[in-house]
Amino acid sequence: MFTGIIQGIAQLTSITKKCNFRTYQVKLPDSLLQGLTNGASVANNGCCLTVTNINNNLVSFDIVKETLKRTNLGTLQVGDEVNIERAANFNTEIGGHIMTGHIICTAELIKIKSLNNNRTIWCRLADHTLHKYILYKNYIGIDGISLTVGEVKENIFCLHLIPETINRTTLGKKKTKAIVNIEIDQMIHATVNTVEKYLSTYWKEKC
Question: Transmembrane region positions (predicted)?
Answer without folding.
Answer: none
